[in-house]
User: What shape does this take?
Amino acid sequence: MPVQRPSKPVKPSAQSGERPRLRPANSGRRIRREKRTIAAMLSIYCRDHHANHGDPQQLCGDCSQLLRYAHQRLDNCVFGELKQPCNQCRVHCYSKQLRPRVVEVMRYAGPRMTLRYPLLSLLHLFDKLGSR
Assistant: This one.
């Protein structure tokens, strides 16, 4: 299996004065599925812990902010399509302030995902077993 290496930033020309561009955002199948998984987990957590004012698919402000942050972290994951599940990863990409919140959401919603999102749960389990 080929190994995906992080791409290097593009060096600007000396006369342009531009800052180097970062590598493009991750947009493969695995990253898209991870984004759906974290969105499903946040949906379960927010529905059970916060007042959603009638719409179960609508996230509260804090949870939608956390979802945007998690998607940003997945876009910038250095492992890309070869990433492990977050709880097995050696690199802590979440900030120290938000890491406990993400862990709390995952611990609460993880077991409940098997009932609400069985396919995502099964794929997540395969990812965990495949990365060992």
